[in-house]
Amino acid sequence: MSLFNQSGSFYGAPLPRLITTATYLPLGYADNTGTVTTTANRCYYVYWPISESRTFAGVNAYNQGAGDSGEKFRIMFFNDDGSSGGPGTLAKDFGEVTLGAASAYQTLTSSWAASAGRYWGAIWHDSATSMYGMSPFPAATAVGSALGINNYSVIGSINDSGTNWGANAMPVAHYVDTAYGAAPSTAVAPTATLRVAFASVTPLVPAFRLRA
């Protein structure tokens, strides 16, 4: 029996209402203190359903490195209306963070009146930056797989040639490498997928959270 279905319900019931001031990762993900060294100019896309119409206060992420002063990243959300599926029109640009010389909890405060629906969260880095990461829940523990969303049935795996067949390679996020800059009005379509073995504790995508 599936714990979640694709409409965002929990054992057939709607998900609980969002709590003011609480922060939220995308459904089915857990964060950890493992290091993600981002790829310069890479935009990471994570499927992010929102269960109710809500005004969000902002987003946050945590840079881990102390040697990334002056480097930048941007957090955006796109509607799930891409011409070939996936991220499409820009729903919200939360803005840009310029890192200082120390590890720090980075917050972008910008109000977003979001409707309930399907979105793609995106974090885009201009440089190779050390960040705390997140992984799908079944891949977030070293003791074995747990109940949770199987991302193969939700986001799929782009350009999978079959090399991961039988390797328990869980899709983590899609990505595209494109010159860093202002938020585009339409997402640059993802070209590939990051994958990690089940029960791996190694994150591959930077963690970022929505604040209700």
Describe the structure.
It is a single chain. This protein is mainly β. It has one domain (25-211). The protein contains no helices and 15 strands. Strand 1 (9-10) and strand 2 (13-14) form a beta hairpin.
Largest sheet: 6 strands, antiparallel
Distance between the termini: 30 Å
Estimate percent helicity. under 10%
Overall structural domain count: 1
- SS-derived structural category: mainly beta
> What's the SSE pattern?
EEEEEEEEEEEEEEE
Q: Which strands sit side by side, in order, in the main sheet?
A: 8-7-10-5-12-13
Number-wise, the strands total: 15
Question: Low-confidence parts, pLDDT < 50 over ≥5 residues?
Answer: 1-7
List the helices and strands and how they pair.
Layout: E1 9-10, E2 13-14, E3 23-24, E4 29-37, E5 42-50, E6 54-63, E7 72-79, E8 90-98, E9 104-114, E10 117-125, E11 130-136, E12 169-177, E13 192-197, E14 205-206, E15 208-211
Antiparallel strand pairs: 1-2, 3-15, 4-11, 5-10, 5-12, 6-9, 6-15, 7-8, 7-10, 11-14, 12-13
